[in-house]
Amino acid sequence: MLAVYKKELKGFFNGMMGYVFCAFLLVVAGVLTMDYCLGPEPTNTFEYIYGNMPIVYIIIIPILAMNTIAGEMRNKTDQMLYTSPVSITKIVMGKYLAMCTVLFIPLAITAIYPFILTTYGNIAIWTCLASMFSFFLLGCSLIAVCMFVSSLTESQILSAVISFGVLFLLYTASSLQYYIGRTELSSAAFFCAVAAIFGFVVRKVTRSIGTGIGFAAILIAGVAFMYFKMPETLCDAATKLVGLFAAFTKIENFIGGIFDLNIIVYYLSIILFFNYLCVQSIDKRRWS
20 to 30 A Cα–Cα from 75, which one of 198, 220, 223, 282? Predict the structure, then answer.
């Protein structure tokens, strides 16, 4: 795993990708710091810059992750992964940790900012560091999502476009939940659509059309059973589910000065789940 990690990290900084990624995040952080803390009406709320920066993840993380697996398949170097003595899990984790390191570098630099700003006024250092930590965890969870998407296609562009769409939906989930009907019928229709999407993902991961269709059919049958036998359980269920996927808003507690362990578990669960799916996707491709 260490060899894969070093290779991937070196690859990011042998080219321009790593430098551009770090520079872009630092520029955004610098502009927001100037606006919040050094502008015409300066404040001591440096932690708020981490609340305004997540939107940039929608653009930069799909670009960072698009080449991770899709590039290997496009260049036919994925065959080396399949025949490597290193397990698929270690390869995936090496690639994943390399991307997390690229993300950590500019954030570690921004962690110095609040200490510098203390010379101009009182800054809540621990709140700033906790906010940076939650922002980093958010980024790590989104990297896991995008790396899984990259494992589903050989096209780097398609991987980036799909990842952008997925992250955009996660970003707008907190708003979308208010536009979804709260009736039993609207919730049932929403869950059927989600079941179809899960069926497609299962089909891509297992490389089996029958398995994907069967999985979706079982979920849809379960939704139909609940709709006809226990309709009250579907009330507001869709809005609650969409709210659960609002990953971008979870960092608000940290920015408000609340160190929430539930949110840490939430992000770690996303990381583990999508890394597991990525391993399964690559492993199934090996035997297909």
Answer: 198
Q: How many CB atoms lie within 10 A of CB 15?
A: 11
Of the candidates 152, 174, 173, the one whose C-alpha atom is nearest the C-alpha of residue 163 is: 152
Task: Count other C-beta atoms under 10 Å from residue 207's C-beta.
Answer: 13
Task: Report the candidate in 117, 124, 110 with the shortest Cα–Cα distance to residue 50.
Answer: 110
Q: Helix and strand tally (H, E) in the chain?
A: 15, 0
CA distance linking residue 60 with residue 22, whole number of Å: 10
- Spans of the chain below 50 pLDDT: none
Whole-prediction pTM: 0.88
Q: How many residues are recorded in the chain? A: 288
Domain boundaries, the chain: 2-177+246-287, 179-243
Cα dihedral 43, 49, 50, 54 sign: positive
pLDDT tens for 215-258 read 889 888 888 888 787 777 777 777 777 778 888 988 988 988 88
